[in-house]
Amino acid sequence: MDQSVAQIRKNLEEIQERMDRAAGRCGRDPAETCLVVVTKTRPVEIIRAAISAGARLLGENYPDESQSKIQEIRDEGQKEVFWHMIGHVQSRKARIVAEQFDFLHSLDNLKLANKLNKVLTESGKMLPVLLEFNVSGEESKSGWDASDESRWPELLPIVEQIRELKQLELCGLMTMPPLFSDPKVVRPYFQKLRALKEYFETQVKGVEWRELSMGTSADFEVAIEEGATFVRIGQAILGARPPKL
Ligand SMILES: *Cc1c(COP(=O)(O)O)cnc(C)c1O
Fold first, then answer.
1. 70: CA distance to ligand 1 center in Å?
2. Most buried in the list 36, 81, 119, 188, measured by CB within 10 Å?
3. How far is the CA of 167 from the centre of ligand 1 (A)?
4. Do 223 and 231 meet the contact criterion of CB atoms below 8 Å apart?
């Protein structure tokens, strides 16, 4: 177990260094980009090791699976970590996300937004959310389709509706582009998400469009060069992922 904490700590340090260098290359402040350590499908023992190694933002994809893991870690008195939902959430799972998570990267439909807002109203909790966009047009991807720039105006009424929801703090955009073996091939997708953020900055007032969540183990350096403020990295820190539990 100690060995694995040591290994994870070493991986974390290496990734952080690569993040800092990527920021340096393009004149960004390294402090602008936060690392979300993706723990989906990992057992609680590995999550504990990651926390001991210094991981503070943890990313989960599946509400049902994450719920018991989060509870177990919380029951141990762990208060220093923040849970980020990064996967597609069915609206019937909204309560789990509203109650257990500190941040939602993957808000991708109005039904979920409304349901979250309703559940959050009961407790008064605010949930920071990012809107997920599909910038590649790939059918298998979740997120609002933003592949065709000429149709971006159609997204504005959706954004306005979400902005009205009092318990959701809209603060940016997220994407999960197709995986390519050559990370540079994904650069145009990251550029497109940033361009969409800039479009919203001019079109939707009263929202601080701070965050861009983009980049995984495969391509986080390119994402940082293109403006990522969150990167979501699992396998480069915790090793090859076991299949979904
Ligand atoms: C799994 C996942 C990641 C992390 O992928 P790795 O290859 O483990 O770095 C990032 N973002 C999302 C949305 C994911 O589902």
1. 18
2. 36
3. 27
4. yes
For each of the chain's 245 residues, which pLDDT tens digit applies? 455 999 999 999 999 999 999 999 999 999 999 999 999 999 999 999 999 999 999 999 999 999 999 999 999 998 899 999 999 999 999 999 999 999 999 999 999 999 999 999 999 999 999 999 999 998 878 999 999 999 999 999 999 999 999 999 999 999 999 888 787 799 999 999 999 999 999 999 999 999 999 999 999 999 999 999 999 999 999 999 866 65
Structure tokens at 92: 């019937």
Token pair 């407790």 in the structure block, residue = 123
C-alpha closest to that of 127 among 95, 109, 145, 103: 103
Domains of the chain: 2-238 (3.20.20.10)
Which amino acid, one-letter code, is at 155? L
From the CA of 61, give the closest atom in ligand 1.
Answer: 15
